């Protein structure tokens, strides 16, 4: 007879998986569990593109988030922040503790840092999605006649722990800069990604760079978490640091994310209004902003010309290849 053995951590993980298995939630905690369900609960269910969520717990997480977003409590901000931190810690548990490296020999950040920027500790997702975004950017820029390897300086705004920038380590020419208001993420980049210059910045402008510093600036999954006024101020600051004729690429929650809104919010979105969840905790992953296309264009005004708008709903093949489930805009400083 084979007696299964578990260490304490493994046992805790299995308990957490059981608790969160949607199959168990449906049948009640005492229902029988078969191996197929355990496997399903453990795996990461990648959404068609973009940031995946651990399949288990997603429904409960969504309901709790909704309840917090809808609540009218005076201490909603701290409550939301506390909830977010708890979920992040919980998700980090499943990430293992081995030191990992990517195919280029660059270290992979810890599960906690991966969760902070991608919502999942899955290292595979961290690497493959970052690479897919980076490959998309290379092609996109070459396609508009501005290949990355002919640029002098680029900036990854809200660089997190270098999920995308790490795939530009082979570029000899452009100086690769990153900035983020989270000092822990910036320190990690500084220590582990020697090819880039990472700087800690603040939640609000300005940036510590001279006017006209960069040929290209990208902000992946940052405007998704900024309230409207702050997003507008950042766009104006980007205009200052980008060279005349330089390019900016950024992503937002657009049409494809409308399904996450309730019917009343969808109506507002359809009428061109920007919908913001939890502006109290701007900059965190729990603050979410949903941008109708017209609102993005209005924010850009006459300062920028839109070169490419990737709408994942309309261009699903491109979006899936790039692993993007955000609307993404490539714009040129006029
Ligand atoms: C969802 S994560 C994405 C990280 C990274 N861009 C990526 O795609 O892996 C959002 C990042 O934006 C950063 N961030 C949010 N608001 C910011 C702000 N106002 N200034 C600088 N960084 C910001 C957060 O600290 C976080 O690292």
Task: List the defining traits of the structure above.
334 residues; alpha/beta; Rossmann fold; seven-stranded mixed β-sheet; two-stranded antiparallel ribbon; 12 helices; 40% helix; 17% strand; globular; binds S-adenosylmethionine
- As for the CATH topology of the largest domain, it is Rossmann fold
Ligands bound, unique:
S-adenosylmethionine
What spatial order of strands do you see in the largest sheet? 5-4-3-6-7-11-10
Mean pLDDT: 85
CATH class bucket of the largest domain:
Alpha Beta
Helix content: 25-40%
How much beta, percentage-wise?
15-25%
Biggest beta-sheet profile: 7 strands, mixed
Q: What's the CATH H-level superfamily name of the largest domain?
A: Vaccinia Virus protein VP39
Q: How many beta-strand elements?
A: 11
Q: State the domain count.
A: 2
Detail the topology: elements first, then pairings:
Blueprint: H1 8-20, H2 22-27, H3 35-42, E1 44-45, E2 53-54, H4 58-70, H5 76-92, H6 111-118, H7 123-143, E3 153-157, E4 175-180, H8 183-192, E5 196-200, E6 214-219, H9 228-241, E7 242-252, H10 263-270, E8 275-277, E9 288-290, H11 293-300, E10 304-310, H12 316-322, E11 327-333
Parallel strand pairs: 3-4, 3-6, 4-5, 6-7
Antiparallel strand pairs: 1-2, 7-11, 8-9, 10-11
Helix pairs in contact: 4-5, 5-6
Brief rundown of the structure:
By secondary structure, the protein is α/β, with parallel strands linked by helices.
Report on this model:
Helix 4 packs antiparallel against helix 5 and helix 5 packs across helix 6. The strands form three sheets. This protein has a seven-stranded mixed sheet. A two-stranded antiparallel ribbon has the order 1-2. The chain folds into two domains: 42 residues, no CATH class; 202 residues, 3-Layer(aba) Sandwich (Rossmann fold). The chain has twelve helices and eleven strands. By secondary structure, it is of the alpha/beta class. The N and C termini lie far apart (74 Å). The protein binds S-adenosylmethionine (SAM). The site of S-adenosylmethionine has 19 residues, from loops.
């Amino acid at each position: 007879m084979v007696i299964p053995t578990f260490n304490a951590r493994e046992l805790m993980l299995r308990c957490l998986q059981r608790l969160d298995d949607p199959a168990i939630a449906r049948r009640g905690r005492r229902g029988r569990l078969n191996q197929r369900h355990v496997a399903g609960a453990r795996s990461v269910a990648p959404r068609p593109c973009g940031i995946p969520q651990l399949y288990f717990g997603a429904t409960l997480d969504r309901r709790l988030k909704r309840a917090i977003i809808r609540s009218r409590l005076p201490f909603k901000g701290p409550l939301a922040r506390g909830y977010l931190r708890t979920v992040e810690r919980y998700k980090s548990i499943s990430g293992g503790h081995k030191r990992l490296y990517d195919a280029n020999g660059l270290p992979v950040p810890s599960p906690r840092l991966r969760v902070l920027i991608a919502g999942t500790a899955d290292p595979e997702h961290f690497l493959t999605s970052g690479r897919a975004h980076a490959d998309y950017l290379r092609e996109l820029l070459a396609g508009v006649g501005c290949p990355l390897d002919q640029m002098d300086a680029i900036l990854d705004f809200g660089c997190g722990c270098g999920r995308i920038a790490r795939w530009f380590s082979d570029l000899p020419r452009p100086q690769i800069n990153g900035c983020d208001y989270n000092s822990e993420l910036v320190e990690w980049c500084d220590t582990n990604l020697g090819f880039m210059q990472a700087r800690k910045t603040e939640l609000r402008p300005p940036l510590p760079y001279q006017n006209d510093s960069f040929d290209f600036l990208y902000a992946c999954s940052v405007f998704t978490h900024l309230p409207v006024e702050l997003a507008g101020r950042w766009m104006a600051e980007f205009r200052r640091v980008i060279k005349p004729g330089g390019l900016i690429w950024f992503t937002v929650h657009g049409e494809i994310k409308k399904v996450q809104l309730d019917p009343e919010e969808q109506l507002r979105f359809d009428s061109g209004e920007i919908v913001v969840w939890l502006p109290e905790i701007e900059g965190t992953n729990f603050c979410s902003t949903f941008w109708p296309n017209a609102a993005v264009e209005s924010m850009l005004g006459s300062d920028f010309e839109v070169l490419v708008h990737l709408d994942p709903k309309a261009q699903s093949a491109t979006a899936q290849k790039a692993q993007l489930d955000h609307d993404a805009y490539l714009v040129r400083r006029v």
